[in-house]
Amino acid sequence: MTTKEHIVHAAKRVFEKFGFSKASMIDIAMAARKGRRTIYTHFASKEDVFKAVIETEVSVLASQLEAIAKQQSNPLEKLRAYMHTRMGAIKELSVYYDALRRDLINNMDIVEKLRKEYDHKEIRLIKKILDEGNAMGVFDIDDPVMVAEAMVMATKGFEIDIFYGNDQFNHQRLIDPLIGILYSGMKNRKHKK
Fold this sequence. Notes:
Elements: H1 3-22, H2 25-32, H3 36-42, H4 46-70, H5 75-92, H6 94-102, H7 104-136, H8 144-163, H9 172-186
């Protein structure tokens, strides 16, 4: 593990414990067992450290989703696997949601910038699956970008309960019906299952 990775790992624990607003660079330095100068060698500000923590967590999810998009399976099954994996991983992004819950107003600009970057990546991945479905004759979608954007927006709605800390929320039971509804609108009427 590099020094920078070690700092990010320690910072994650600090943000989980204190939230973004109450955490300080001194707290991060102490958790990483590094001097403040070392922290500032790698990061210009607490916001940069926070961004690195979120990017690290999101990159794990992105890798999982990219692997699903590359699978050699039916595009409908890819979408289903994609959505289940995505929502399971979102539930695990504890720093993201804890930081938002604790100090929503203060973090919104940082989180929204990261969110927009990730949304674009996610739209591209879903579009890739939709394009593949079109090419295979499974889907009949005139505007895959618009459908991918709609899917990203729909799944964001599932995140509200996670955001508010509803541990009883079961996104798994909602994904298959959503995919079913989407598929009934996207499927190529000439295609046989």
